[in-house]
């Protein structure tokens, strides 16, 4: 997956072969923030402008912009999974949070 990052927001980049343009969409937020460009430079400029517009719109409406990730993750798993990961974390000498962050980081990077 190709991505771009600006002001903490990440966008997925795809190529639309039919229209011969790059298309991007900001990930991790509920509002649909999309943009496109014919060149990488134009795509980057449009991405930056889309994020800036989103932040300005939020400010004008007096609402806080959504952040792509707060660092808090609520996760519900069956009790047997919870128990198994707790044992795995303790066996590796880590807290459950440390162990889970490492496992999730590794999964996201593959």
Automatic annotation (TrEMBL):
**Superkingdom, according to UniProt?**
Bacteria
Q: Which GO terms describe its biological process?
A: regulation of DNA-templated transcription
SUPFAM superfamilies, alphabetically?
Ribbon-helix-helix, TTHA1013/TTHA0281-like
Q: What's the protein called, per UniProt?
A: Type II toxin-antitoxin system HicB family antitoxin
Can you name the source organism?
Acidithiobacillus sulfuriphilus
């Amino acid at each position: 997956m190709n991505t771009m990052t600006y002001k903490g927001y990440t966008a997925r980049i795809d190529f639309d072969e039919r229209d011969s343009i790059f298309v991007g969409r900001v990930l991790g937020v509920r509002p649909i923030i999309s943009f496109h460009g014919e060149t990488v430079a134009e795509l980057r400029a449009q991405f930056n402008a889309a994020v800036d517009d989103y932040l300005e719109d939020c400010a004008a409406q007096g609402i806080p912009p959504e952040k792509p990730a707060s660092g808090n993750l609520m996760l519900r798993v069956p009790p047997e999974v919870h128990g198994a990961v707790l044992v795995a974390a303790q066996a590796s000498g880590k807290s459950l949070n440390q162990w889970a962050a490492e496992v999730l980081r590794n999964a996201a990077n593959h």
